[in-house]
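Hey all, quick one. A colleague (J.T.) asked me to put the flavin-adenine dinucleotide job into the tracker so the inputs and the structure tokens live in one place instead of scattered across chat threads. No bug as far as I know, just bookkeeping. Sequence used:
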Amino acid sequence: AAAEADQDVVVVGGGPGGYVAAIKAAQLGFKTTCIESRGSLGGTCLNVGCIPSKALLQSSHMYHDAQHNFKSHGVNVGSVSIDLPAMMQQKDKAVTGLTKGIEGLFKKNKVTYVKGYGKITSPNEVTVELLDGGSQTVKGKNIIIATGSAVKGLPGITIDEQKVVSSTGALALKEVPEKLVVIGGGYIGLEMGSVWGRLGSQVTVVEFGDAIVPSMDAEVRKSFQRSLEKQKMKFKLKTKVVKVEENANGGLTLHLEAAEGGSPSTLEANVVLVAAGRTPFTKGLGLEELGVKVDKFGRVEVDHSFKTSVPGVFAIGDVIPGPMLAHKAEEDGVACVELIAGKAGHVNYDTVPGVVYTHPEVASVGKTEEQVKAANIQYRVGKFPFMANSRARSIDDAEGMVKIIADKETDKILGVHIMGPSAGELIHEAVLAMEYGASSEDIARVCHGHPTLSEAVKEAAMATYDKPIHF
Ligand code: FAD
């Protein structure tokens, strides 16, 4: 079509990186096209990631709360049961509402949406196999690769999305499995494990490494693992799954080995979730023919302004190095387009927060205590337990703590780690503070509303350079 023949910006991929870049580009006055093959916008995050998982985490949390916690608050509800199809429907409603919302935003901002699979056939041309059949060439001065990531498979294990599932299948199980084995102790495995555990599955997490969520501050991680164990999640660390096969009872048998070699063992399951990481997705994009360099992990190499090795071709989000998170992809998208427009665009990867949406939630930003130690930095730690926070006590949700690590000499905040109620919201005070180069005293001297969970952040900050009041 002639209308698309001369675009300023062509974005391949409509996930949080791509759709945000497209909207921002249009807002900056660029003629913009976004190409997406899924048939729906929002990428992994909205369709099979962040959003549906948070919907199921909320529903399963409500069920768990009703069963275990309502009574002590004086609320009696009789017997509580699950309606799984209704739960899935509520999740689907959230997903559809949000993905359609992005289509609306595209219209509002005049982004052209092409539904199909894009291949970059020259530095200013993308050839699209249209979902409706046929193909279309979209020419553009600048091309942004925002093709995201896909589930990483494991040798000896075939994902059928019925019994052996990826996170996508785990978001759509038709019944609650009696036994669920999660391969991989990262945040995705723990979140999905929490969902099905709360709904009644016996959950075992098998992890190759010697710790779950290795990027987490070790002290916080240990409390976190204890908390999950209290919720009856089991862990087999330093263990490798070599094979998964169907057994005579119609279930699955996992063949395990100690990570460092040793006697093999087996584990039974009804459903196995493979959550051993995600890998950049560039299949059929034509990168090799074009000469776009990728690193040994398959990630597209970019410089600090998101330029690939081919002039006019940029890349953002999960497909490039950096934390594989939706909000990081969005920041990449905005900065990349601003740089194309000749403005100053920048993303500070040191202040990208990470959140695990289990209960309690765990959120962090900046360095862990281990990283600070390894860097030979003199530091102080301030901690405040939610047990001593009046709001956490009044809502009877007081597990966890706030931990702030600050430079010993300057008091500059180096890292903040929170496990507890609404940790994923609380962390942003720390993110903002760090972005502004604040000291822990800066946080401590800010008046915080009472009674709020945020006061725990303030008191941990007090504890960093002095003493907290309430502990
Ligand atoms: P993607 O979202 O993967 O989007 C890329 C899009 O490009 C896809 O829709 C794909 O169909 C399309 N595409 C690929 N190739 C082509 C092509 N050649 N032509 C046309 N289209 C193409 N992150 C968080 O920050 N918070 C969370 O809570 C969170 N939860 C998650 C839970 C799960 C279960 C999973 C799997 C992920 C989760 N993530 C979360 C990670 C998050 O989803 C990703 O970091 C984010 O989606 C990356 O955005 P992106 O735009 O780079 O790529």
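Adding what we noticed when we looked at it: The pocket of flavin-adenine dinucleotide is lined by residues 12-18, 35-38, 43-45, 49-50, 53, 117-118, 146-149, 167, 188, 281, 284-285, 317-319, 324-327, 329, 357 (CB under 6 Å). The first helix runs from residue 16 to 27.
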